[in-house]
């Protein structure tokens, strides 16, 4: 049976999986209702990992129906895919959809290695130094490949020269969410509140230069209201802090922010994409107030520069096949992401245009390189 997502009385049921997942809540342990037990894993991590597993069940079914083909020259041994953020996050989810499908197709281990730190640049540096044989791949983002060159004085890699783009996985917006202690319910009310309380609000991000850091700095400059930046290691930590009242707001990935807003633990104010998200159509876009505001994020697959082009093209074809499957496209849409596989040449041009765009954005936001 092909897995699908259904909601029953506030629980997320993945058809084809044995149990329902609770609607995500991030509460301090002392405030959790009796019987609450995350078994050492936060609910949103469980949600995303279970989603990857559900998609994988569908991938396995599709693979089982595919006639056997001659064994290709690549891969002949384990392939490592470096993810520059913690396990259970959005980038990790996209990587696992890819690795699990590839392992099923080739019968070879594809292992995700999470190397978090410094807005994703720690993992990117490790990937850039990896052998150029196709057995180490990297899931890059707007943070690691478009923003980092302009917010860090010294990087352990060159985002253009040291990497070979393979294919995009998906794109998605960030969502401005605020603590329930903030009285604002609309974006205009938020702007008015921030301007009336300059320097008193703080916001969380995944680190300097992360895609959830940049929109906060831009908005702060646009409305003339300083806000304090508090960096975290992951979106999961950001949401915990926001729900716990330790920070006031965040511009985080819609995959993390929207479930919390639906559960009432935070309040959704706006999305950072140029248009409203089909996943949350009632939440306005910031561009409705500030035209041309468009600070979303993207995730894609890279290899160290110098990997043979035949391997690059082979992997790109696999990504296109995996991320074009109707069940994958549908599942990603449910969490606010848009599957966007493309070719190595198209992805290369896209990454370069994004670097040019963010160079201007960072300059206009007056973010000083660290």
Fold blueprint:
Elements: E1 4-8, E2 11-15, E3 20-22, H1 43-64, E4 79-83, H2 90-106, E5 110-114, H3 121-128, E6 136-141, H4 142-151, E7 163-172, E8 174-178, H5 187-196, E9 202-205, H6 214-223, E10 228-231, H7 235-243, E11 249-253, H8 254-263, E12 267-271, E13 297-304, H9 309-322, H10 326-334, E14 338-339, H11 344-364
Keywords: Receptor
Pfam families: TctC
Protein name: Tripartite-type tricarboxylate transporter receptor subunit TctC
Largest sheet composition: 6 strands, mixed
Question: At the first level of CATH, what is the class of the largest domain?
Answer: Alpha Beta
> What do we call the CATH homologous superfamily of the largest domain?
Bordetella uptake gene, domain 1
The helix/strand class is alpha/beta
CA radius of gyration: 20 Å
Quickly give the CATH architecture of the largest domain.
Answer: 3-Layer(aba) Sandwich
Strand order within the widest beta sheet: 5-4-6-13-7-14
Instruction: Determine the strand fraction and express it as a percent band.
Output: 15-25%
Overall 3D geometry? globular
Number of helices: 11
The proportion of residues forming helix, as a percent range, comes to 25-40%
Total tally of structural domains? 2
What is the CATH fold-level name of the largest domain?
Answer: D-Maltodextrin-Binding Protein, domain 2
Give me the strand/helix succession: EEEHEHEHEHEEHEHEHEHEEHHEH
What distance separates the N and C termini? 51 Å
Q: Spans with pLDDT under 50 lasting ≥5 residues?
A: 1-42
